[in-house]
Structure to design on (636 residues):
């Protein structure tokens, strides 16, 4: 019985010594004059989503190039990888560990409690711990502008929102988009559908096809990798557009992606990296909106034929009105039901 | 009136699009299980088919080469399961699960190696609308051919007897292990076409997780279709129909999760209705040794 278990014990001892070794390998920290060490854990979307995680990674690479930080990325294949990945980086004494995505909120909370001397940053969620900085975005503000642009470009007076998974974060995109469309065209029809997954590119293609078939001619896609399928769909549909999300997706199908509602996760990551390099370890809650360039639209580089200078000027005016607080884009369906288009004025 | 017929046509088209990868995977599963090997690895085989089809197309510039590569990759992956199940006598569920992990992890790593970027490959030339139609029709043709092979040829009788009672088959002079091995390998080749359809017909790239559980739904289709090729075909169409239906019915106000559960609720209801009559091949999933 015990003899049979010997290989198991051997493996356990090996694993244990590996952990010890990892814990002992001590790099010079910023306090001792070494470079800042920045770690990042992606959510299940992973690198290569051409969207949210990729944007965070760009921020990290910018910190590497401009701030000479040491960087490391651990990708998560499933939700059960979050805690182990965070713990590995905490053990390796990274100065700041980024958790990309609200899915990791609970895990960050636990790991931050276990490692009070380490610092963490979470994107898209608020974790109330002294050693955690939280970064959230006003997605509803950027999505409002996307909705306005969609309503301007629509000839059928129908636009649509295609989300990944029906969760409060995605409803901020949905509500802001619908309100923005109504701001331009109060009687416009806004269809809403969800793929149910951030991975299923085929579902993204099929559902965007359904939305176009049902009469929408501009679809705002906020569905991670499933959105790749929607961009594939629009390529074969003259007169129809999609609006990209998170990263600048305009060049993925030039002229067919009306604009992208970029969410500058990279800006958030880079700002916290800067604070870390300045040995001011970040904490608290950072909210990035239009004013901070945390969210916004791309410059309509390939779609100037529909987005005339007049229309772009209107988008700019709306942006200014949101920053000034004259327009408050809704962030939930309840707020959307209460939303009344604000007179644009001159 | 045209609006209604247009909507119906769209529903039928979408049903076929949703069903095709399921049909291939389920047919692969039927052949494998008829021979007595449960293939939990269908998800991994779909992944391998989708991934290698894109890699070979990127390398050759010809999507037809991609189709061949995807099919071969599926057959080779299934051969691992077949070897483990027939020669090593390991638990088929464990081996199949391992297959899924290897294929999905391997494809994720392969993206970095081959395309230099994680997450998704670059776009490659795909089969186009004509090629997509051919793959849809081929799914039906393979269902018919598999039915004929299983129930009207000596080889089919051998396969089925190995799934019911491999000992008796051996006594009758059939090499049960060899028969099982090839049934699983051919099943893998068929199932891989489902992955090829996803990456080279419907889309034009491979992205991580793009099979999104279709291999597991196909397993349900195998059972729902009572281990019969035409049954599996019908079950896959049934799932495809309800998936397509929920796409058109989804709208603001109704929780979308509820609509997304529709195909599976429909399957549960249907399965309960058939419960008394469902019977797996008697030796399905049981390792056999000479």
């Amino acid at each position: 019985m015990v003899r049979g278990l010997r290989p198991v014990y051997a493996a356990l001892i090996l694993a244990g010594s590996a952990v010890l070794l990892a814990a002992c390998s001590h790099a010079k920290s910023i306090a001792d004059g070494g470079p800042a060490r920045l770690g990042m854990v992606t959510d299940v979307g992973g690198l290569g989503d051409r969207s949210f995680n990729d944007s965070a990674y760009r921020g990290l690479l910018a910190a590497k190039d401009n701030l000479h930080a040491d960087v490391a990325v651990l990708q998560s294949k499933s939700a059960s990888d979050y805690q182990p990945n965070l713990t590995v980086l905490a053990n390796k004494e990274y100065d700041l560990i980024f958790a990309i995505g609200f899915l990791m909120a609970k895990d960050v909370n636990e790991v931050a409690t276990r490692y009070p001397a380490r610092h963490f940053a979470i994107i898209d969620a608020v974790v109330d711990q002294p050693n955690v900085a939280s970064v959230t975005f006003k997605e509803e503000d950027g999505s409002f502008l996307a909705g306005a642009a969609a309503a301007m470009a629509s000839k059928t007076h129908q636009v649509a929102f295609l989300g990944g998974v029906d969760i409060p974060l995605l409803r901020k995109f949905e509500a802001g988009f619908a309100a923005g469309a109504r701001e331009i065209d109060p009687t416009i029809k806004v269809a809403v559908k969800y793929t149910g997954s951030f991975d299923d590119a085929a579902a993204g293609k099929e559902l965007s096809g359904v939305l176009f078939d049902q009469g929408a001619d501009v679809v705002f896609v906020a569905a991670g990798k499933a959105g790749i399928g929607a961009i594939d769909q629009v390529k074969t549909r003259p007169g129809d557009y999609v609006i990209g999300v998170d990263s600048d997706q305009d060049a993925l199908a030039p002229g067919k992606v009306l604009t992208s509602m970029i969410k500058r996760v990279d800006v958030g990551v880079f700002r916290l990296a800067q604070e870390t390099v300045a040995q001011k370890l970040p904490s608290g809650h950072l909210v990035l909106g239009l004013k901070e360039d945390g969210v916004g639209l791309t410059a309509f580089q390939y779609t100037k034929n529909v987005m005339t200078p007049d229309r772009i000027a209107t988008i700019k005016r709306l942006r200014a009105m949101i920053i000034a607080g004259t327009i408050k884009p809704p962030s939930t369906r309840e707020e959307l039901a209460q939303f009344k288009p604000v007179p644009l004025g001159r | 009136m045209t609006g209604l017929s247009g909507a119906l046509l769209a529903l039928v088209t979408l049903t076929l699009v949703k069903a095709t990868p399921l049909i291939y995977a389920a047919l692969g599963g039927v052949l494998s299980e008829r021979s007595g090997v449960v293939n939990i690895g269908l998800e991994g085989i779909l992944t391998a088919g989708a991934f290698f089809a894109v890699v070979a197309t990127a390398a050759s510039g010809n999507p037809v080469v991609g189709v061949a590569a995807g099919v071969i990759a599926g057959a080779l992956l299934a051969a691992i399961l077949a070897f483990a199940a027939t020669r090593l006598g390991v638990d088929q569920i464990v081996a199949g699960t391992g297959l899924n992990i290897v294929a999905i992890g391997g494809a994720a790593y392969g993206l970095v190696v081959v395309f230099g970027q994680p997450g998704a490959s670059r776009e490659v030339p795909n089969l186009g609308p004509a090629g997509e139609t051919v793959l849809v029709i081929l799914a039906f043709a393979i269902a018919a051919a598999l039915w004929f092979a299983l129930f009207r040829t000596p080889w089919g009788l051998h396969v089925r007897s190995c799934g019911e009672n491999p000992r008796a088959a051996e006594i009758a002079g059939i090499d049960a292990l060899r028969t099982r091995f090839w049934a699983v390998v051919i099943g893998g080749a068929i199932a891989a076409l489902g992955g090829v359809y996803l990456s080279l017909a419907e889309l034009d790239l491979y992205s991580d997780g793009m099979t999104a559980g279709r291999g597991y739904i196909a397993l349900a289709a195998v059972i729902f279709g009572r281990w019969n090729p035409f049954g599996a075909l019908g079950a896959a169409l049934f799932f495809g129909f309800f998936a397509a239906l929920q796409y058109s019915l989804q709208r603001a106000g109704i929780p979308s999760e509820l609509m997304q559960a529709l195909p599976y609720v429909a399957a549960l209801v249907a399965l309960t209705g058939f419960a008394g009559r469902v019977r797996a091949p008697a030796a399905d999933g049981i390792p056999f040794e000479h």
Notes: Residues 102 and 111 of chain B are 14 Å apart (CA to CA).
